[in-house]
Design brief:
The protein is mainly alpha-helical and about 250 residues long. The protein contains 12 helices and 2 strands, in the order H-H-H-H-H-E-E-H-H-H-H-H-H-H. The chain has a two-stranded antiparallel ribbon. The longest helix has 22 residues.
Length: about 250
């Protein structure tokens, strides 16, 4: 039964990644039997790699990523199942996402975005599942980091595509709102290219963006009024710098 049930043991790790609980992740112990608990063990190396990368220890992150890649390629990975996908397929998505975030924190932006786009393609190629096999959409990291580097137009397309897959997802909504605000020149950190775009924007285009922003804000506000909304979402991914600290 382990090949059918073990995969559920890693879900708490992915939840901690989703909410950026880096210190909590680094306190989690590894299973005694790494091959029996293959998905949890691999996911813990993955999460620790992200935790180290996002807390400034890139060297330790690279070590975790190498250990993750070694373990995820174990021959039994294709036998462990999570609904309609085996964990070899799920971990194949995590690999370029992990290496992509590490590359970003190491200042290798082109390499980072190439890896994250590869992770997006692999995630899209998973067998249909509900919920989706990859708990955290890769596009949230890709779009957020693209926007952080001033690539707001490309990031906007990333978030729009994600919202087609995951309508009203609050992380994607926050990312799209940030991109549209930047197009309007609403943030003081606008670069010259964005200012020029704002200057050349037609009145109709500006009004369309303002109308869409109003609708997106309403969607997000309605979600925040839920009794279950106990986490303040300020960026599309915990790998991104919080607003105001960039």
């Amino acid at each position: 039964m382990a090949v059918y049930l073990e995969s559920y043991s890693a879900l708490d790790i992915h939840i901690l990644v989703r909410f950026g609980r880096w210190e909590e992740i680094l306190q989690l112990p590894f299973p005694q039997n790494h091959t029996l608990m293959l998905y949890r063990s691999s996911s813990l190396h993955y999460a620790r790699g992200l935790a180290f990368a996002n807390t400034g220890n890139v060297k330790a992150a690279i070590t975790e990523a190498n250990q993750f890649d070694e373990l995820r390629l174990h021959e039994s990975a294709e036998q462990h199942i999570l609904h309609n996908n085996n964990i070899a397929q799920l971990l194949a998505v995590d690999s370029p996402m992990l290496h992509g975030e590490i590359a970003y924190k190491n200042g290798k932006y082109d390499e980072s975005f190439a890896l994250l786009k590869q992770a997006v393609e692999l995630s899209d190629g998973l067998q249909y599942d509900e919920p989706w096999g990859k708990m955290q959409p890769v596009r949230h990291a890709l779009g957020g980091l693209l926007s952080e580097q001033g690539n707001h137009k490309e990031a906007e397309l990333v978030f729009r595509q994600d919202l087609k897959f995951h309508p009203r997802n609050p992380w994607a909504l926050v990312g799209l709102i940030e991109c549209l605000n930047n197009r309007l020149g609403a943030q003081s950190s606008c670069c010259k290219e964005k200012k020029d775009e704002t200057i050349n924007m037609s009145t109709k285009e500006r009004k369309d963006i303002e109308a869409e922003l109003k609708d997106l804000d309403i969607q997000l506000t309605e979600q925040r009024q839920s009794q279950w909304a106990d986490f303040n979402i300020v960026t599309s991914c915990a790998c991104c710098s919080p607003k105001g600290s960039r």
